[in-house]
Write a structure and sequence with these properties.
This protein is mostly helical. Helix content is about 75%, strand content about 0%. The chain has helices spanning about 1-10, 15-50, 50-55, 70-75, 75-85, 90-110, 115-130, 140-180, 180-195, 200-210, 210-230, 235-245, 255-260, 265-280, 300-315, 325-350; strands spanning about 60, 65. A two-stranded antiparallel ribbon has the order 1-2.
Length: about 375
């Protein structure tokens, strides 16, 4: 057992919730952002502003035309797998082999491909690391083992994992359509908490394919955390803190939350308020990329996702033109209400002594 532990340490194989549930999951979200999300943004910008070189096909593969954004989106599987491998400190031959693994697991996982990529890429990475540089034919053995294990697991697991992820997502979305008030509270709170914790709300939403009203509730919860923390901590952090948290991430406050968990009350309560407002009053739906549901106001990707969903629905003939009420709902749920409600709740918490001056100060 000691020899085995020493081997794992030498290979930097750390079997832990942090390595797989935080590091790998967070990296997967970055891979999604650099492929699917960027591709969606490029296509949206090209279409809305009539930019020819962004809307014209630049490549034809197996009879399918791809724009620049289309190529980026098509590479989401490899991008996620390589990002996961990078987070797991894979050596070069393993890392590059994960391109094939990511493509296979994402394709075979269907709509639930991101979850399949997460599981398969982690196992293929660790097995690839275990055999890396152990023989004189490393340049052959390492890619063969990494790709062989990854593709085999993709064929075996990916379809089932993809279906399971989509089933869970479907249940959440069905429940939100059935009970928009209660599920609006629950989804908004849970996904908002995930965004501030050192895990990836974006990857969770992508893995579950969380769209529709549930996606709108998730977006509201994420925005409540980001805008809420940004505005209520403005006296301590000024404009730098407003920008870094408001369009960056509320995860910056995790150190302060550990010191005084009560500072998290205001954003969490705010998400429980804005979630059902988004679902019941504004009927805010995220019908763009599911990963956008967990992005909040980070780079305004969440808002771009909602707008892209509107355009998709119009093109599909499932909704009418975008109205002023649509814009009011999006801005209110994601920016205006969190900016007003969260500081008010925090002011009350300060009055009763639960939150003190300096508790929200970023280093």
């Amino acid at each position: 057992m000691d020899k085995f532990k020493a081997f794992l340490k030498r290979k930097d194989i750390e079997i832990s919730a942090k390595r797989y549930g935080i590091d790998a999951l967070g990296a997967m979200a970055q891979g999604l952002f650099c492929s699917l999300l960027i591709g969606t943004i490029i296509n949206t910008v090209g279409t809305q502003f009539g930019i020819g070189f962004l809307t014209s096909p630049v490549a034809t593969v197996a009879g399918t035309d791809y724009t620049v954004g289309g190529l980026a989106s098509a590479m989401s599987g490899p991008a996620m797998a390589v990002a996961i491998g990078y987070a797991l400190h894979c050596p070069p031959l393993v890392l590059f082999s994960l391109i094939t693994v990511g493509f296979a697991s994402n394709a075979l996982g269907g709509a639930g491909g991101p979850l399949a990529v997460l599981f398969v890429a982690i196992i293929a990475s660790e097995i690839g690391k275990a055999v890396s540089k152990e023989t004189k034919i490393d340049i052959l053995l390492t890619p063969l083992v990494t790709i062989g294990v990854g593709v085999a697991l993709s064929a075996w697991w990916a379809p089932a994992l993809g279906k399971a992820a989509m089933k869970v997502g479907d249940i959440i979305m069905w429940a939100t359509d059935l009970q928009p008030f209660l599920m609006g509270i629950l989804v908004s709170l849970v996904v908002g908490i995930a965004l501030t914790l050192p895990i990836s709300s974006a990857a969770i939403c992508a893995a579950l394919g969380l769209t529709g009203l549930a996606g709108g509730a998730a977006l509201a919860g994420c925005c409540a955390q980001m805008i809420g923390f940004a505005v209520m901590s403005f006296p301590e952090n000024k404009w730098g803190g407003l920008i870094s948290q408001g369009i960056g991430t509320s995860m910056l406050q995790m150190g302060n939350i550990v010191k005084n968990p009560k500072i998290w009350i205001a954003p969490c309560v705010t998400s429980m308020i804005t979630g059902p407002i988004a679902t019941c009053i504004f009927r805010l739906k995220m019908n763009g990329a599911a990963v956008s549901s967990g992005m909040g106001t980070c780079g305004f990707v969440g808002q771009i996702g909602v707008y892209t969903g509107w355009l998709n629905d119009i093109a599909a003939g499932t909704r009418g033109p975008i109205t002023a009420f649509d814009w009011i709902g999006l801005l209110a749920a994601s920016i205006v209400l969190p900016a007003v409600i969260c500081p008010c709740i925090n002011y009350f918490l300060k009055r009763i002594g639960w939150v003190r001056e300096g508790d929200l100060k970023l280093d």
